[in-house]
Amino acid sequence: MPACPQTGTHYFWEFLMLFLAVFCGFLAEYKLEHTIEHQREKKYINTLAKDVELDIASLHETSVIKRKYVNYFDSLVYLLKQNNNSSLKDIYFYARHLGRITEFKYHDRTIQQLKNSGSLRLIRNKDAADSITIYDSQDIKLILNQQEIERQMRSDILSNQIGKIFNSYIWNDMVDSKGVISRTSGNPELATSNQELINDFVVHVAHLKTAYRLTEGNIGAAIIKADNLIYFLKKEYHLK
Asked: How far is CA 147 from the centre of its chain?
């Protein structure tokens, strides 16, 4: 017995309604997921911008300290060259800062989260993703690598040079319980008058001073890149 045309039509409309319900549910779920991912993306970008602002502050602080120590080391080399016993307390003072530095601190909390969780895919803006990657893998990495080189140079000077040139007891007494360095009273003699040892020491100081100057120049460039990155992210994602 042939099917009733009305029954066939009824089944068709039931199927169509079911299909539309499933399809609309899929669209709603897709839109919700899309909205959630967009919110996560903006949250990541917002915290990243704050991290970069902290980077800029740290870069500025490090740059100021490096300029200060470059001046100290210029004075140290000059006074050693003059070989004037009346300047020995200043020589001790400037040399005592060879082991001191305020290093740049990289605030990479958000970038590490993005990389470790695979969430870099959430950054749908290709220009933004590229800018973030370049900042992390090139601009900042250069500074961090240079800091490691400087750290090794300072360690070499402290381990292999200082004890040959300076009186260890005077060296110790120049720092108080809070770590503050002060000029010693009088003009304490150096531990040696051997010009070959002093010359070798000056060479190491000059290398460290040059490294600081190089890093300071790269810090200036990194600050410009960081400023541009923040401006770009705030503009693209309408951040306050």
From this structure: 10
